[in-house]
Amino acid sequence: MPIKIKTELLCRVTLSPVKPSDARLIAKWKNDPTVNKYALSTSKRVSASSQYKDIEAALKDGEQYFIFRLKKTLKAIGYVRASWLDERKTLAWLRYAIGEGKYRGCGYSKEALLLLFDRLFRKKVRRIEAEVYEFNLPSIAILKKLGFQLEGRKHKAHYDNESRKYFDILIFGLLAAGHR
After folding, report:
1. What is the distance of C-alpha 157 from the center of its chain?
2. How many CA atoms lie within 13 A of 156 on its CB side?
3. How far, in whole angstroms, is CA 158 from its chain's centroid?
4. Domains and CATH numbers, the chain
5. pLDDT tens for residues 49-84?
6. Separation CA 5–CA 122 (nearest Å)
7. Residue 173 pLDDT more than 50?
8. pTM, whole model, 2 decimals?
9. At what angle do helices 137-145 and 108-122 cross, to 10 degrees?
10. CA distances in angstroms from 67 to 19, 74, 105, 121, 150, listed in the order given
């Protein structure tokens, strides 16, 4: 089913291109225990310098990488990012997180993702992929609401340090209208 972007839903957030000066903020978010568990699952702390290098590399590669902000206050609350899976830049790999915990569960991620998808599809991206740990129920729900299809799973491909168990990684895909 095609994504229908409801402009009345898009009034609460705005996207700002990420800049190297955002490295400290993104590192702070990635070190948040919830973001780390559901998106990164690393035992190492993420440093501002590693994020600075990552942002520079992403910008050089032309990735679509944005901070999303509350429109009313311009407070930065999360990021959305599409990395390229092909040289023509028609296949994108999705990553996103709300770094500020009190804004989770309020629909802001969905709004930011819709804004990103609109940009991607206008740039002739034909497919967006996402990988999600099977226990990340909020992300699974958002992706399904946005029309992503569960396409497969990598069985026991993720080791969770906290629970000391292996979990599946679910593979989701979304095709642009006209490629479905």
Report:
1. 20
2. 3
3. 18
4. 7-129 (3.40.630.30)
5. 999 999 999 999 999 999 999 999 999 999 999 999
6. 13
7. yes
8. 0.89
9. 50
10. 9, 10, 18, 19, 27
Contacts of 164 (CB under 8 A, 6+ apart): none
- The answer to whether 7 touches 115, Cβ cutoff 8 Å, is no
Residue from 72, 76, 142 nearest 110 by CA:
142
What's residue 2's pLDDT? 46
How far apart (Å, rounded) are the C-alpha atoms in residues 106 and 103? Answer: 6
Residues 6+ apart with CB under 8 A from 117: 3, 5, 128, 146, 174
Beta-carbon contacts of 94 under 8 Å, excluding residues fewer than 6 positions away, are 80, 81, 82, 113, 116, 128, 129, 130
HSE at residue 175, side-chain half, CA atoms within 13 A, is 8
Residue 165 amino acid letter: K
- Count CB neighbours of 154 within 10 A: 13
